[in-house]
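seq as requested:
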Amino acid sequence: MLRLSQPISWIQKGSGFVVEFTLVSAPPLAGYSERFGTVTLSAPKDLAVVNMAIPLGADAKALKAVKSGYGVDMPDPGTSVETKKGAARLVRLAPDQAFVVFTLPTPDAEEVVAKHVKTALYLTDQTDVWAGLEISGAGSIAALERVCPIDLHPAGFAVGDAARTVMEHLGVLIIRTGEDRYLLLSASSSAGSFLHMLETSIKNVL
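struct tokens:
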């Protein structure tokens, strides 16, 4: 997402002056972090998301490339796995599709993933498509249960599980990353509504 920077200079135009601005790239919820009682809601810094698609008939080659490049097996659909040292999280969305979610301050996420899997999978940088929020702490599941229609009980949605769902009319990908920690991704175009929905739900269970 592009945002206006601070004015960088004044330019004389005829008898007056105009302000010159530049556009800078920034995540839609950049810098957001709030604590509500026992619950913390924050936007992960420098979150990068790259889609990996397995070419038709090339499953074995693709899975081998993921194992070789990231040191872990591709997770089953509906689950995720952290790579060694937590450098990235692989999220399997379907038999032929997965996300690589990781931290990267520079706009070259696709090239970074390509270094790991070479040309064995089709890659698409989706970083600008998503807005990410992390909710954690005791009470986080209670807040999520108000807006999430899927069963989040640990017996049915364990650490590492992932699912696409709808929360208050917004499409959301939810990933359980810890006992009381969840990463949620929703469309960057509705980031404000996404944030408002979660803040409201948290406040209503305090």
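The first helix runs from residue 59 to 70.
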